[in-house]
Structure formats: C-alpha cells, structure tokens
Amino acid sequence: MSDHPTTTSESSPQELVPLSEGSPPERATRTTLRYVDDRLGSANFLKRSMDKVFPDHWSFMLGEIALYSFVILLLSGVYLSLFFHASQRVVVYDGSYQPLRGVSMTDAYASTLHLSFDVRGGLLMRQIHHWAALLFVTSIVVHMFRVFFTGAFRKPRTINWHIGVGLMVLAILEGFAGYSLPDDLLSGTGLRIAYSVAESIPVVGTYVVYFLFGGDYPGQDIISRLFIIHVLLVPGILLALISAHMMILWHQKHTDFPGPGKTEHNVIGTKFYPGFFLKTNGFLFMVFGVCAALAAFAQINPVWLYGPYDAGQVSAGSQPDWYILFLEGSLRMMPNWETHLWHHTISWNILIPGVVIPGIMFTLMAVYPAIESWVEKDKGFHNLLDRPRDKPVRTGLGVMSLTFYMVLVIAGANDILASTFHWSLQATTWVLRVLIIVLPPIAFKITKRICLGLQHHDAALLHHGVETGIIRRLPSGAYIEVEEPLAPQKAETLAAQIGYDHDGHPPALAGSTNGHAAADGGISRPVGALAKTRSKLESFWDEPREDIPDPHVPDDAEHH
Amino acid sequence: MVSVSSPDAPEPTPRRRIRKRRIASLGILVAALGTIGTLYAGLAPSGSAASNSDPSIARGRQLFLQGCASCHGLNAQGGVRAPSLIGVGAAAVDFRVGTGRMPLQQHGPEAPRKRPVYNNAQIQLLAGYVASLGAGPAIPTNLNYQSADVAFGGSLFRTNCAQCHNFAGSGGALTYGKYAPSLSEATPKQIYEAMITGPENMPVFGDKEITPAQKLAIISYIRTIKTEPNPGGAGLGRVGPVTETAVAWLVGIGALVIVTMWIGSRA
C-alpha cells in the first residue's frame, strides 16, 4: 500500500508542472495529457477521467472478465461470420471430414464443418468463441455474486443492478442463439425444446412459434433469423447496455469496503491512469490468454460428432450449455401434469418449469433491491459495502437461491450422474425433487448461523484480541490465557467493517432506541396487513446483533 | 355331452354305449401318452444324447456344469435366478462370457463389463454346448467392416444407437439403474453379436431391420470415431456440454479469479 501511488478522489487538481518532474507514473500521465491537449484541447475532461480513482480490492475486477470476454466474442465472432452460412438449404457434404462425406445436411452445418476442418485457424477460432461465451456468462454470474453479497446493488446503484440483470438474461439468450446456429443434432434438440416451451404458453404460444420458425418445426427460417438475432440484434443491445452500465459506474464512482479513512463520500485507490489502466489492460490479455489456452487444449462443442440435425434422431445425454442447464433441469424434474379443457391442452409439465420458474427467478432477482430497502425502510445512499457476514439474512437468502439454482443445474445432468455413478435415473430425479424443496431453507439457516458466528468471532477479536496460547497463573491460583490486542490498523479496519462509527460507537441494534424508530419519536405500532408483514419481515431481517460490545465500556476481566 | 339323434336310426342300448365309450377313452389315453413320450424323448435335452455326438460339446457341457449350471440349471433350462439358454445361440454366449458379463458378479439392473473369466477356447466350448441345445444366432465371422460406408454407418448409428449409447458411443443412462454401456472397449465382433442377440436391455436388430452390410457400416463408424483423434484438444469424455461446464467453472473462471486476485494484490 505504501510504495505505490494511493490517492483519494478528493485530491486537489495538479497545476501545470514541467514534464521532467515527479515519479515515472506522474510523468507518464502528464506526457499523455499534454500530447492530447495540444491536439484536441480536451485535457480537462481527460484529466478528470485519468485521475478517476478505482479502489483496489480484487473482487472489483470480476466484472472486467465479462467485459473482456465480450471483446473476445466480438473479435472471434467476426472471423466466424466470414465463413458461416446461415441457411437451411440442404447440401451434400464433400469436405475433408470423412465420416460425414456424402451425408445430406443443411448449409449451416456444412459450413460449420468447413470452418472447423478446412479453414485455417477456423476450429481454434470456433473454440475460442465458444469458451469465451461460457466465460462471458460465467463471469457475469460471478460478478453478480460479488455485487449481491456485498450490497453493491443498493441505492444509488439500483438502476445498474437492473441493467446487470438485463445483461445476464441477454447473455443467456445470445449464447442459446449462438450454439443453435450450427444446426447439429444437439443444437436442433435444444431448439426443439425451446419450440415446445414457447408453444406451451396458453393462447399465444402456437402463434408465436409459427411466426418465429416460419411454420411447423423445424421450418425453413429459424437459422437465418437466429443468425441476425445472434450477430446483430442481441449484441447491439448488449453493447448499448454495457456502455450504459459502465457510464453509470464511471459517473457514480466505485463502491469500497469500509476501512480506515473510507467514508460514504470518498474513494481511495489507484488512479485510472496509469495505474489502473495498466492493470486492466494486463487483465485484458490474461483473459485472452485463458480463452486461447482453453481453446487450444480442451475441445468444445464437437459438432462433427453430433452429426447433422434430423428430427428423427436424438443422442443420449443431450444437454445444453451450462447457463441453460437450470431450465433443462427444471423440465426434467417436473412431474408430467397436463390439463385438457375444451379441446385445449395446458401443458403444466412444460409451462411451469420452462416459463413460470425462470420468470419468477429473474423477476425476484430484479426486484430484490426494492424488497430489501422496503423491508429495512432504508432510503439512504450506500457507497460503502457490507461484508456478507454483516448481513446474515441477505447472505442467507442469496445462498438459498443459489442452492435452489444448483439443484436445478444438477437435475439437468441427471442422466450423466445416473450413468456415471450407477444410480437409478428415477431415484436421482426423485431425490432431486425432494432436495429442491428441503435444501434451500437448510442452506439459509446454515448460512445465517455461519454469518452470526463470524460476527461473534470478529467482535471477540476486536474486544479481546488474538489468543496467544500462553497460559499464565494468577497469584490467586487461577489460570488465564494471555490475549494480545490486534495491531492498530487491523483493529481500525475491523471496527469499520463491523460498523463502529468514527467515534467508536457500536452499530445500532434493531429495535433499540437508536434505531430508526427513535427518529419518529418512539416505536410506532404497525397498522394494516401490509405494514404488519413489513414489520415482521424487518425484525426478521435485522435480528439484534448480540455480543457486539462497545469498546468504550470496560471489559470485565474475569468473564471467562 | 349332447348327442344329436336322428329319428330314423335305432337307439343303441345303454350298455353298448358305455362299452363303446370305455374303448374310446382307453384309445385316447394310449395315444396321448404315446405322443407325450415321443415328444419328450425328442425334445427334452438329455446328457447322453449330446455327449455321444461330439466330444467338444461334452467338454463344453462339463464347463457349463461347473460354472453355469448352478443358476441356469443342469440342462440349461433356466431357473428362478437365471433364464433358459435353450435357443439363445452361440453368439449370445460368446458376447456375454467374452465381455466378462457372465458369470454374473451380482444380481442388479445391469451386468457390467469386466475382465472375462474364461479364455477364448473355453468360451468356444461353452458356446458350442449352448448352440447344441437349440438353434440360435451363430458367432459372426469374417467381419469385413473396413470396406463399409462410414458416413452411412454414422447416419444409421445416430438413428438406431445414439439415443441410448450417446452420439459418440460413450454410453448413457436408462431407467431404474439400467444403462447403455460405453462402446469404447467393444470389439467389432462383440458389437455385431450385441446387435443380433440384444443383450440385457438392448433390442435385437434382426437382419431384416438392419442388414448385415448396414451392421458392418455401423461397426465401421463406431471404430472410426473411436480411433480418430479429437481435433480440438482433450475430448472431455465426449459426453457433451456437462464436462464443458465443469471445465468452464473449475479451470476457466477458476484461473481467471486467481489472475484477478494476483493483479489485485499488486496494486
């Protein structure tokens, strides 16, 4: 922390100083600014941007993985589009892959084979594109973990959270459209499922799929339509939303964890240029490198093995890419329920797992910030983050949702699990049906318990210090363990994280007089069902944080 | 018994009718016993009948009595624990014993492939004995699959085999713990035998459904994709996107998070 330029955003603007003065990074900044200003006269804007301060915690860079995999996707995607034919015209393959020569297939599939076997670097590019796609969605999810569990979605960043949820849904759609394009046996199977899911929507479903596919499945139009959706429509929206996401981030400045000197109104960290700029560019190349290494050493989506799509064929173990696996799982887990009404069939067996469940999941994700601020009656601005342990209910709810999601994902691979571990497929499905109801509440309980335990541990550390393992005998004959207080900086950081204010007062206890109720001049009794629910939820959310002592109250030395 | 009497014919006396009926019953009884006896002598397997025709069948029977008869019965007629082997043919024995599935390790939904207990000569003797019990598919010979049409075999494979054995013959789950095994260790002869005998849960693909030439094409395709390298790097088990998921999360994002922590630590 000491030997690199650490700055706060409140630092005073630099005056015009000679180019040769200062440390190398400062000189670098100044040289660049002068160069641009001499030509564009935009130094003020650039200067403000270059002096933008980014906090240093590693977890704040997870979103950049998504950004850089998106760059890789754009670049490799352009290369692929030079050779891919988005056409369902039937051709006879005569390329260099022997086991498919002479087989009738669509031009989309044939051109993918051509791209893989007869275009220089084609297979590598295809694999880079596909691995980058997996990493794109994966890093979005990992980035969302960080944002959710640290409370970075709170006001004023709720709009960016919504944009983020939108980006994730679009990334999933984009991925699905992308791997459906080659028109191989696996992707066709996926499209068939998507067709049926859309068809299961009452009243409009059949019309929607007829318009989308240009007729009964598989039709003649879907590949060319998916192509435009995949290379123009969705990437365009993604690009616009990513820009908005980053401009809002730039405008609002980054959040940071509490610590010494950190307040709701400052940012402490590295300046954008040159420090953060170099870091983030290095990171770009690292992401490139990981994608290229995966593409070089691990085969992905071997379409030549799947064969061309044929509605009469299906392979055992047909799974989608991981980000669709939860939908596959919910479909596989769902009991086979149908209702027949006035010559119409309502396919609950597809409608619920394919439309209702993902709808609920994404809606809950989008409205969670609103729910939390409503329950906590929290209308404040939050630029300092929470540690997951300091918000046991939020962390618990997050882990609970993830557990639900994980059971869905595992159910999507139930046949692979059954055949790998020699389990009964039916038993696997039934066990998962039970687990999806039983596990999430258990996960919530356990997570909350762990969070509270960690809170107590922190309080003990702060209050009693570190156990040294040295046992001392007192004149009275009693034995005590010698405890060493934390180093001052560590203690200050920990105190800030737990929530002691700058005067060293402990965090407000919910329901106590220094909570929000005091501001209204007393504890008001909730009136009406909604208010009562809210009040109940609030006391559940903000359970009193016991055992967090006030460091100003002298400790009773003989409490052990 | 209803007897239809015409008004013209004289009524037989009751005594004569009874005597006539007794003679007829006796005749039927003798005829029935004779037929059953003849059928039994002709159809029922008898040790002496088999042993005096061919010494190798006798040796096969000896092996059978030692290793198989405790479940399949002294005359391979089957029992509570195992089916009859009369009429299953030599190919079924060669497949089951040759892939180590028989003798059975334990009762379960599926007999796993394991190291064979009998050597090839012993398997031929056992197969010969079982074939002598009744007609069934013979062990295929001269499987000239190298000259078959690979691409056509691929289409047939995807239509008839992939829904259980997976697109690359990596195997897959069936109901209640049963499974379609991986084809990676199966020899061409064993694949052919499996198609004509339908072991375990596999259907029989008779020569009218898939002709011998088409069977050879399928074998050719299975052998080709088994021996062809994975052009894109490690094959990840050839089971589709599930292993790709594991690699993306454990290797891909795992490596990138480590990189993030590393870059984050050198602020």
Mind explaining what this structure looks like?
- The complex is a heterodimer of chains A (560) and B (267).
- With 560 residues, chain A is mainly alpha-helical.
- Chain A has 19 helices and 9 strands.
- Chain A has helices at 24-40, 43-50, 62-81, 107-117, 122-149, 158-180, 185-199, 205-213, 222-252, 272-297, 303-306, 322-333, 348-375, 392-412, 414-421, 425-464, 488-498, 516-519, 529-541, and strands spanning 7-8, 53-54, 90-92, 104-106, 268-271, 339-341, 344-346, 466-473, 479-484.
- In chain A, strands 1-5-2 form a 3-stranded antiparallel beta sheet.
- In chain A, strand 6 (339-341) and strand 7 (344-346) form a beta hairpin.
- Chain A is globular.
- Chain B is mainly α and 267 residues long.
- Among the domains of chain B are: 55-133, Cytochrome Bc1 Complex, Chain D, domain 2 (Orthogonal Bundle), CATH 1.10.760.10; 150-230, Cytochrome Bc1 Complex, Chain D, domain 2 (Orthogonal Bundle).
- In chain B, 53% of the residues lie in helices and 1% in strands.
- Chain B contains 11 helices and 2 strands.
- Chain B has helices at 14-43, 47-51, 55-67, 69-72, 89-98, 120-133, 150-160, 162-165, 188-197, 212-227, 241-265, and strands at residues 172-173, 179-180.
- Chain B has a two-stranded antiparallel sheet.
- In chain B, a hairpin with a 5-residue loop joins strand 1 and strand 2 (179-180).
- The longest helix of chain B is centred in the N-terminal third of the chain and has 30 residues, at 14-43.
- Chain B is elongated and about 120 Å long.
- The termini of chain B are far apart.
- At the A-B interface, helix 5, helix 10, helix 15 and helix 16 of A face helix 7, helix 8, strand 1, strand 2 and helix 10 of B.
